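Notes to self, YCII-related domain-containing protein:
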Amino acid sequence: MLILELAFTDHPERLAARPAHRQLLARLHAEGRLVAAGPWADDSAAMLIFDVDRPGLDAIMEADPYYSTPGVRVHQVREWNPIVGPGAPEA
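result:
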């Protein structure tokens, strides 16, 4: 799994692009490629958990203009190995 961390500013273009981005996230979740996503409580950043490989994440990000919208910065992409919950190995 991959964790995508975003950082935000209050740029008006980011807020305008957010509804379409969230529709894409809902589709990715329904397809099983997105485990969970959401902003921090103060809306300064967000975390998205994808069940894809790096080329898959790159394709998702390339297809969604939100990731290059003013006010959105990709802070970090990290590989994650859960031990419990979705994606964890069966005991």
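- Residues 14 and 46 are 13 Å apart (CA to CA).
- The two ends are 18 Å apart (CA to CA).
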